[in-house]
């Protein structure tokens, strides 16, 4: 059950109730509630540790407490606790400076929050999954939202405008972009979310499979950027969100085409960042790259995951609302970010430099190499796969009574 509610904050609040136990990802809605212990995973543990033993504000009081207890300054307990505080504080200070530098911030001035009332947000692949959730969440806050998809979005929000568009086709993107500018205005935020997965072994991929994967997952990003980025550069403001995957950093079995396409997006986003900063002289245009692990969306609804508590603890799946919330927060705070979700994905890029046997151990822990066994494609089927032609044409507007 999904409840999207309004709040007084600048960022929409989203309440989503998702059951947690699963052996196969056939249907998120069919999962049953579990005991509290089953909801404990490495992400929850990391959050608790970050707010306690790795929080400068928390550990500051440790040496202070010892001092008030009469411990001398030269006591090992006081010295070690003070050193620990300095180390942890230095880490967070460096991280804060890195964030400040990346976004051209000012030490003395807090960044200005985004005025959502003036934004026009375009979301590709917004008819389902993460894109649909972001679209509805923004629409609840009366943000002008545009969905580009080959399938219409089913919604009751009056301010979501749907245009039928195959974003892998430049002619369609160009035509729809002109219509958007004429009917609504120039988009200020572009969320490239459209994606498709074949879930086949490399030798089982047909030429049509490979072409569709790269057309939808990669080429569509070039077309939407060519259509909407020029006006952002002209105005020196905007935000580009690229939804990639942690599989863009490491490959797994039966996902060769998907992993390759997501790796392309990682480098596309990075190249775009440097072009905006160095060549177009528009560092104020923000870029956000999302590198998520397995997400509980229809795209991966037919994949199987290890059912043991061990695997679910260390490599949990990501509910769509977590990604939607994090993306909206980055846009709202007008910051360029690289988002890793869930927690274990922060370390994936470092696994590649480890000895092969250690890397294989992590690969086994994730269960990724066998997760696509028996996978059935349910999203993004081509006419030749469905056995019928897509008869939907034109563009339409989704309105609520």
UniProtKB/TrEMBL annotation:
CDD domains with a match to the protein in the record: 17beta-HSDXI-like_SDR_c
Residue span(s) of domain Ketoreductase: 119-288
PROSITE patterns documented for this protein: ADH_SHORT (PS00061)
Keywords on record: Lipid metabolism, Membrane, NADP, Oxidoreductase, Transmembrane, Transmembrane helix
InterPro entries to which the protein is assigned, alphabetical: KR_dom (IPR057326), NAD(P)-bd_dom_sf (IPR036291), Sc_DH/Rdtase_CS (IPR020904), SDR_fam (IPR002347)
GO molecular function: all-trans-retinol dehydrogenase (NADP+) activity
GO cellular component, one term: membrane
Localization annotation: Membrane
Entry superkingdom: Eukaryota
Residues spanning the membrane: 44-65, 77-94
Membrane association type: Multi-pass membrane protein
Region (Disordered): 380-401
Function per UniProt: Catalyzes the reduction of all-trans-retinal to all-trans-retinol in the presence of NADPH.
Family: Belongs to the short-chain dehydrogenases/reductases (SDR) family.
Name of the protein described by the UniProt record: Short-chain dehydrogenase/reductase 3
């Amino acid at each position: 059950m999904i409840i999207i509610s309004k709040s007084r904050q600048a960022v929409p609040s989203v309440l989503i109730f998702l059951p947690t136990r699963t052996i196969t990802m056939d249907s998120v809605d069919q999962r049953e509630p579990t005991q509290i212990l089953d909801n404990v995973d490495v992400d929850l543990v990391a959050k608790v540790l970050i707010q306690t033993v790795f929080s400068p504000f928390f550990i500051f009081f440790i040496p202070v407490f010892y001092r008030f207890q009469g411990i001398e300054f030269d006591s090992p307990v006081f010295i070690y606790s003070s050193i620990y505080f300095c180390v942890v504080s230095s880490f967070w200070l460096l991280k804060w400076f890195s964030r400040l530098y990346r976004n051209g911030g000012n030490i003395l001035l807090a960044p200005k929050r985004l005025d959502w009332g003036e934004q026009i947000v375009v979301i590709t692949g917004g008819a389902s999954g993460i894109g649909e959730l972001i679209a509805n969440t923004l629409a609840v806050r009366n943000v002008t939202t545009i969905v580009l998809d080959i399938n219409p979005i089913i919604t009751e929000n009056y301010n979501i405008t749907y245009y039928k568009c195959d974003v892998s086709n430049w002619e369609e993107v160009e035509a729809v972009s002109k219509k958007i500018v004429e009917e609504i205005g120039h988009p200020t935020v572009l969320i490239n979310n459209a994606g498709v997965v074949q879930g086949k072994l490399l030798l089982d991929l047909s030429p049509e499979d490979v072409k569709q994967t790269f057309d939808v997952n990669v080429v569509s990003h070039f077309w939407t950027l060519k259509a909407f980025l020029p006006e952002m550069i002209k105005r020196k403001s905007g935000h580009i969100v690229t939804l990639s995957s942690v599989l863009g950093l490491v490959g797994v079995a039966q996902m060769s085409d998907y992993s390759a396409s997501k790796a392309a997006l990682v480098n596309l986003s990075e190249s775009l960042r440097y072009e905006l900063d160095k060549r177009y002289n528009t560092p104020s245009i923000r870029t956000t790259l999302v590198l998520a692990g397995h997400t509980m969306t229809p795209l991966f609804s037919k994949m199987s995951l290890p059912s043991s508590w061990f695997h679910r603890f260390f490599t949990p799946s990501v509910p769509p609302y977590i990604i939607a919330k994090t993306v909206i927060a980055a846009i709202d705070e007008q910051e360029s970010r690289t988002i890793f979700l869930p927690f274990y994905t922060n370390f994936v890029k470092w696994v590649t430099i480890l000895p092969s046997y250690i890397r294989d151990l992590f690969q086994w822990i994730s269960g990724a190499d066998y997760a696509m066994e028996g996978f059935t494609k349910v999203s993004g089927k081509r006419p030749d796969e469905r056995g019928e032609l897509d008869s939907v044409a034109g563009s339409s507007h989704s309105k609520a009574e």
